[in-house]
Design goal:
The complex is a heterotrimer of chains A (357), B (319) and C (278). Chain A has 357 residues and is of the alpha+beta class. Chain A has twelve helices and twelve strands. Chain A has an eight-stranded mixed sheet, sandwiched between helices. A four-stranded antiparallel sheet of chain A has the order 5-4-12-11, with no helix packed on it. In chain A, 49% of the residues are buried. Chain B has twelve helices and eight strands. In chain B, strand 1 and strand 2 form a beta hairpin. In chain B, helix 10 packs parallel to helix 12. Chain B starts with a helix and ends in a 29-residue tail after the last helix. By secondary structure, chain C is of the alpha/beta class. Chain C folds into two domains: 92 residues, Elongation Factor Tu (Ef-tu), domain 3; 123 residues, Nucleotide-binding domain of ferredoxin-NADP reductase (FNR) module (Rossmann fold), CATH 3.40.50. In chain C, 21% of the residues lie in helices and 30% in strands. In chain C, helix 5 packs parallel to helix 6. The termini of chain C are far apart. The model of chain C has no long low-confidence stretch (mean pLDDT 95). The chains are: A alpha+beta (357), B alpha/beta (319), C alpha/beta (278).
């Protein structure tokens, strides 16, 4: 069922122009040291040499979006009665995101079971998700903060992508993963890829073998619950955290959000914005009580959610794609790999102590 | 490396009386160290000192209110400690300050500008005056002077301004001109419309993560920041340039005359926005108006904490 | 293609009546403007709703009227923060948004044929009210119903207009208590857990439903355990900061359970299984 086509390096620009004619094309571009996603401009080079600083999460799940707007007025039939008109603001418009890495697209497969299935679904997310296609680029090498293979992914993982580009001699093999992807590679600029089958195989083999062996994380969900009450552990391991939101906002799988009403005069809107569980206010109750008053409590929740609670609800899937952005962007160098491994080791040794008692 | 060993000995001696001692250790990347909280003697084995110790450990001090805490500082870090003492945000008797002479730290963003993705760095070592960096593409030798943090180029305080234990020979102040002057002059040369375009342009990629705010040792509002407050409702939650710049303006004003230009705000920014310039500019205004620099004299009162009936440099009556 | 329902879009509703219960508790009786939606509205005792004060925000309140009395939906609001303060400025005729019903409900089916003891403190009486009135409206389905309602002082007691009726009904054994003696007060004086021990309800074939400030819940739980109630016989309802109310925004979780979806009603047995993060 999977279609593979070949895209020559020289044809890349033309293909991007073609894609841009049919939908809003979003590509990674250099902005100083950062690589950020933005609208395609044929005069601005597309930056594919490194993973984008922020993932393409904001295309499908924007940092701020208007959910609805309301207008206060008077009932025209009875001016003594107030009239409040409420209207939802639905997103629309087809988009293609070109040049993300597999981890960026995979992130949405963590959102989907929460926002896009079951009885309660998020129509804003679903609209954008249906309207957006991902053409991702497989990673030729892994960085020091990359750990996608620890969580069941890999440098050439197609999960969540519509088209996966494998770099080969002279260009890319474009593997169409979904129907949307098959439509995208149906361009005349892409040719037959049979001759490149070996090169693709070789690429996959090379990138997989280059990876350091991944530690087993099967014990993580239980371990994190086992040491939940150990605030000495969580207090110590969260010492260097500065409780900002860099890890959360740059994470392809973090989806916590907030509602805020902003109004001016007689008009107003209800916004949905990204929120982050590392901030003190996240769980602050109006009574003054806060179930997570310290950094230790909050870091425990973040790591717990990703490696214990979410897997418990979704067939063992970790809410983490191993992209390492949280590690790279943390001003204090907090490393979630260290925390998960330390939690497992701590639970094990605490368990042994209990067994001796 | 004898001074480092001497300090390690002093830290081990002081540990039993202290909640912990803050220093640095190796991290996931060779390019930057990460804060180390030494609680047990074996933790001290991991302490390192060198050009990768970029974090300002003073950021953590106010989180340890009421506890006895030790801190190893570079000269610039000690200025933050001094400023915290001036403002009574920490008590001198709660602190045990360790110091070593600092030859300067790396500005990772300068290294990244030369060698690309920091995730691909396999090794980094300072050999004499040369930073030797190896990535997946090969090895590069970079003169340290090209990738040293701007604050280090003209640093007047290579040694902790106050300390309880100092090891090693103190270093003299640098004689080079401060790169900040050229940067600020370039911005000042822009017409107002161009200047605003510059700031609107750089703030566009801001994701309102507040790493800049949380990394700052002088930030006191902490959990009651206007960025997240509805009362007063200074900024909305919308991701507009207006709200993002407003936050930076308020933060910079809160820091005027208090900021020691440690640069953590800019270093912490995950999308590399050059916000330090705002704070440097306001500091220079304070220097001109009140002849005061933050974090030098722990007995001094910051000028915006007090007033003179007749200000020396403010012409109130003589129009 | 059918339009997907929008779980974040509130129903526009009008306040038909307000009652100033105490200095900081105000009751709102609302009707959803759309007559079909109001007629079709159904919920189970214990379920909550998000009330919108448009321009300020939303907050979570239990629907404290019972499903057996659908002239209006009743919410009682304690003034504590921004949204509740704004709600308190509203009066009959003003518009609010309602997103309801949300969350789970009291296990009123399993309580059939059993005795029920309600122990409420202050505003904690609100969720108990919906279940208690539902049971009284279906009286023959339930055994002995006991109410212990306490507050700091008479001025802090909500639902004072209904208290005389509750006290005089012979199918309800109601006790009121305040913390300290006040001239003119004819009922009990004493902290809720102590009065509960004096009443000494029999745990046999009985459920205890309790809600109130955390400190009251803590000691009431202790008293109930001492009286012999098993963990699964004790029911309570939790409070958390909530935003979406439908288990998506990731905020109200205790471990892998979301208080807005798996709660807010929990038995003490269920709470003990959850990580310690109330």
């Amino acid at each position: 069922m999977q279609t593979s086509k070949f895209l020559a390096e020289a044809s890349l620009g033309a293909w991007l122009d073609e894609l841009a004619a049919k939908a809003e094309l979003i590509v990674p571009k250099r902005d100083g040291n950062a690589v950020v996603f933005g609208p395609y401009d044929p005069d601005v080079p597309v930056e594919l040499s490194q993973e984008a600083t922020a993932p393409p999460k904001s295309i499908v799940f924007p940092p701020c979006e208007e959910l609805m707007h309301f207008t206060q007025g008077k009932d025209p039939e009875d001016p003594t009665k107030p009239l409040l008109q409420l209207e939802e603001t639905m997103p629309s418009g087809r988009k293609v995101v070109f040049g993300a890495r597999p981890c960026g697209a995979r992130g949405f497969t963590i959102f989907d079971p929460v926002f896009g299935s079951g009885e309660i679904r998020d129509p804003y997310y679903e609209a954008r998700r249906a309207d957006t296609a991902f053409i991702t680029l497989a990673c030729a090498e892994s960085g020091a903060a990359c750990f996608c293979h620890w969580v069941g992914s890999g440098p050439a993982d197609a999960t969540g992508s519509d088209v996966l580009l494998i770099p080969v001699e002279g260009g890319y093999v474009a593997e169409a993963i979904t129907e949307k992807g098959a439509e995208l590679v149906a361009s005349s600029l892409l040719t037959e890829a049979d001759a490149n089958a070996d090169a693709v195989e070789a690429f996959r083999k090379k990138v997989t073998e280059a990876l350091e062996p991944a530690p087993a994380l099967d014990a993580a969900p239980e371990s994190l619950l086992a040491i939940f009450d150990d605030m000495d552990f969580w207090g110590a391991i969260s010492s260097k955290c500065i409780s900002c939101g860099a890890c959360t906002y740059l994470c392809p799988t973090c989806y916590c959000f907030n509602f805020t009403d902003e109004s001016r005069g007689m008009e107003g809107k209800r916004l949905r914005t990204w929120d982050n569980c590392m901030s003190f206010q996240f769980t602050q109750e109006a009574s003054g009580h806060n179930p997570r008053p310290t950094k230790g409590h909050r870091l425990k929740n973040r790591v717990g959610h990703k490696f214990s609670y979410y897997p418990g609800l979704h067939e063992g899937a970790f809410a983490c794609c191993g992209c390492g952005r949280c590690i790279k962007s943390c001003p204090a160098g907090v490393d979630i790999r260290e925390i998960v491994l330390a939690a497992m080791a701590h639970a094990k040794s605490a368990g042994k102590e209990q067994a001796h008692d | 490396m004898q001074p480092l060993e001497d300090i390690k000995t002093k830290i081990r001696e002081a540990l039993p009386e202290l909640e912990c001692v803050i220093g640095w250790e190796k991290s996931w990347t060779p390019l930057t160290a990460t804060p180390l909280f030494m609680r047990a003697p074996e933790d001290v084995d991991r302490l390192i000192w060198g050009p990768f110790n970029v974090n300002n450990p003073a950021t953590y001090l106010t989180g340890f209110k009421g506890k006895k805490i030790g801190i190893l500082v570079k000269g610039c870090d000690s200025r933050s400690v001094v400023q915290l003492l001036q403002e009574n945000l920490v008590k001198r008797e709660d602190l045990t300050i360790f110091g070593l002479p600092c030859k300067g730290v790396l500005d990772v963003s300068k290294v990244v500008a030369k060698i690309g993705d920091p995730g691909m760095v396999k090794s980094a070592e300072l050999n004499g005056d040369v930073l030797q960096v190896a990535t997946n593409k090969g090895a590069t030798d970079i003169p340290f002077s090209e990738v040293m943090a701007d604050k280090c180029v003209a640093c007047q305080y290579h040694n902790a301004i106050i300390s309880d234990h100092f090891a090693g020979d103190p270093l003299p102040p640098s004689m080079k001109p401060d790169p900040a002057e050229e940067q600020l002059a370039a911005l000042a040369a822009l017409a107002p419309a161009e200047l605003f375009e510059h700031w609107a342009g750089v703030m566009d990629k801001c994701i309102r993560c507040y790493a800049c705010r949380n990394a700052c040792p002088m930030c006191v509002c902490r959990d009651h920041c206007i960025a997240q407050s509805r009362d007063p409702h200074w900024i909305s939650q919308e991701h507009t340039i207006r709200d993002k710049i407003m936050f930076q303006m308020i933060h910079a004003l809160h820091l005027a005359g208090r900021c020691t230009e440690c640069g953590e705000c800019q270093r912490a920014c995950p999308v590399d926005i050059p916000i330090l310039a705002l704070r440097k500019k306001l500091n220079r205004v304070v220097k001109e108006t009140f002849d005061y620099q933050a974090g030098i004299d722990s007995k001094a009162t910051p000028p915006l904490f007090t007033f003179q009936v007749e200000e020396a440099n403010i012409n109130e009556r003589g129009w | 293609m059918t339009k997907m329902p929008n779980p974040y879009l509130p129903d526009m509703a009008t306040i038909i009546e307000t009652v100033q219960e105490t200095h900081n508790i105000k009751t709102f009786r609302v009707r959803i403007d759309n007559p079909e939606r109001m007629a079709a509205f159904s919920f189970q005792p214990g379920q909550v709703g998000q009330l919108s004060a448009f321009g300020t925000g939303e907050a979570t309140f239990v629907i404290n009227s019972p499903p057996t009395r659908m002239d209006y939906l009743q919410f009682s609001v304690m003034r504590a923060g921004e949204v509740t303060s704004r709600l308190h400025t509203l009066s009959a005729g003003d518009k609010v948004g309602v997103r309801a019903p949300l969350g789970n409900h009291f296990p009123y089916e399993s309580m059939k044929g059993k005795n029920v003891v309600f122990v409420g403190g202050g505003i904690g009486m609100a969720p108990l009210r919906t279940l208690m009135l539902y049971m009284l409206d279906n009286r023959k389905d339930y055994g002995k119903i006991t109410l212990l309602y306490g507050a700091k002082s008479p001025d802090d007691m909500a639902f004072s207009a209904e208290l005389p009726e509750w006290l005089s009904r012979d199918d309800l054994d109601a006790t009121l208590t305040i913390d300290r003696e006040v001239p003119g007060w004819e009922h009990n004086v004493g902290l809720i857990p102590n009065v509960l021990r004096e009443i000494g309800p029999d745990p046999d074939n009985c459920f205890a439903v309790t809600c109130g400030p955390p400190i009251m819940i803590k000691f009431t739980l202790q008293a109930l355990k001492d009286l012999g109630f098993a963990d699964d016989q004790i029911i309570t309802t939790l409070e958390k900061r909530m935003k979406c109310g439908v288990g998506l925004c990731g905020r109200c979780n205790i471990g892998s359970k979301y208080v807005c979806v798996d709660g807010p009603v929990f038995s003490y047995a269920e709470l003990k299984d959850l990580p310690n993060e109330l």
